[in-house]
Amino acid sequence: MDASGGGAASSGAASSQQNVAGPAETFVNIVGGMVDQSDVKAIIAQQNLMLGRFEKTNEKLERFNSLESGRFGQAMEQFRSHTRVLTDMKKDLDAVFRRIRLLRGKLARQYPEMFEAYERENAPEEDVEEDEEDGGPGDASPATAARGGPAVPVATYTPPVDTDTPS
């Protein structure tokens, strides 16, 4: 008997593993023999060079992103600030125009003849026609009334007829 105690059975298992590993190793050796080792080393060197370039580029992009995120934050804060200013200005202008419309309506109700004469004298002819077509400032539409403006009827002014003068 041999010292390992397995004798022939263990040598049979080892030869079986050699037979299985044998074809795989043979295939690897054949494929490995087909490729020149200097070409493999050149490919690996090029890959390492490209990896270094990609890592440097990645670092540059990360630095750029960190710098730009700070700048972007500042720009967004300025944008929000400017947006608030514009919104406040719009509210103020809306209030001013609402007051103007209320005053015009009040003047039109208190002094209709003078108001109509003033409107007729100061309104250019082509602007009056365009306003009538597209619902301009003289429009007494429901939208104007909904915005807080009075619905001022547009009437024509007829001067009083003087009956004392001979004809």
Order of helices and strands: HHHHH
Q: Structural class, please?
A: mainly alpha
- The global form is rod-shaped
Low-confidence segments, given as residue ranges, are: 1-10, 139-147
Distance between the termini: 159 Å
Helix segment tally: 5
Integer-rounded radius of gyration: 47 Å
Q: Report the sheet-strand fraction.
A: under 5%
The average pLDDT value, as a whole number, equals: 76
Please explain how this structure is put together.
With 167 residues, the chain is mainly α. The chain contains five helices and no strands. The protein has helices spanning 8-34, 37-110, 112-122, 125-134, 142-146. The chain is rod-shaped. The model is unreliable at 1-10 and 139-147 (pLDDT under 50).
Which descriptors apply to this entry?
167 residues; mainly alpha; 5 helices; disordered N terminus
How is the topology of this model organized?
Elements: H1 8-34, H2 37-110, H3 112-122, H4 125-134, H5 142-146
Helix pairs in contact: 2-3
What would you say about this model in short?
The protein has 167 residues and is mostly helical. It has five helices and no strands. It is rod-shaped and about 115 Å long.
